Structure formats: C-alpha cells, structure tokens
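Listing S7. Sequence submitted for prediction.
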Amino acid sequence: MKSLTVFSGGKTRAALAVGLCIVLLAGFRVLRASLLPDLPNFSPVTAVAVCGAFLLPGALGWILPLGALMVSDFLLALVLGYPALSSAQLVVWGTILGLVGFARLVARGGFSPMRYFGSVLGGGVFFYLITNTASWLANPAYPRGLGGLWMSLTTGLPGFPPTWMFFRNSLVSDFLFAGVLLAVWALASRSRESALQRAA
C-alpha cells in the first residue's frame, strides 16, 4: 500500500502498536460514556476508522477498525441500556464502513499530513451529516422538510444538548486521537529503523 512507504522498515511493529492503540481507543469510548457523560460524543470513531484504514496494511486496515468499533458499540449498548441492534445502529456501521473505504482510497495516493488529517476532517463531517440526516428521517419528533433537517444538524431536539456540540466534541476528539495514532506509528517505525541501523 503506497501510503505506508513513508514508514518502511518497521511496518509490522508499527502496525502492532497502532492496532493496540485502536483497541484501547475503542475501550475509551465505553469508559468515557459511562464515566464522563458531560462530554457527549468525545469519541474517536472517525479517528479509529480513518486512521486505522490509513496506517494498517491489507485486510487489517478494514477488519481491526470495523471490529473494534462494533465491539465497543455492543459494550456501549450493554452499559447504557439501549438495544444493541437497531436501524440507527446499522446506519452508523454502514457509515463507518464508508469511512474506512474512503480512507483506503485516499491513502492510495501516498501519505501526506494533508491527506491524513484532511481525511479525518472529511470523515468527521461525512459521519455527522449522514447520521444526523438519518435521525431526522427516522425520528418523528423532527418536523418534516428542510427546517427539520436543519434542526437535526444544529439545535437537535428539546431536552438534549444541541447537535452542534456533539459535532464539535467529535471533531476535537478525532483530531486529537488521529495525532496520537500517527505519533505512535511514527515512533514505532523510527525505533525499528534505528535498531536496524545499529545492528548494521
């Protein structure tokens, strides 16, 4: 995969490090929801989907991000007491699958910070638009028409935090965790290359 050539030399070690971070971030989703409910949507969904697809080789770039997020969704349903399977959840998983495919496509052009973080931004906007539009379509509490769609994208329903706050928290967490994943990948790759140079 062309996007990984910039980190050549320590691919296996770096992939293991990133894979472990993805599993830990999926666990963080569950802990954050139960321990820090005042931070709605401070969750690395887009970072895990996009960055995992960008940094992990082959099928692992599909399987690990999708698997980690799906398992964490089941755990979230168990902890928070909502149904594990629903039409809304299927929309979320379909959107995550789209994010992974999008990131894999962008990564074919080679790695650059602009492509990497641009994919995180584009993926975050895509996830927000798709899931909020699905909520507007499925939830009868939203008025029909463009006014209801705008409501679902900005203020949300009365009695809940405004949806723009969810979007803001999501973007902040995605950029934060995307930076962490990239740093882990780069450090693991560099340490492997340094070890090889010393051995030579």
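Caption to Listing S7: primary sequence and predicted structure tokens for the chain studied. Residues 2-193 form one domain. DSSP finds seven helices and no strands in the chain.
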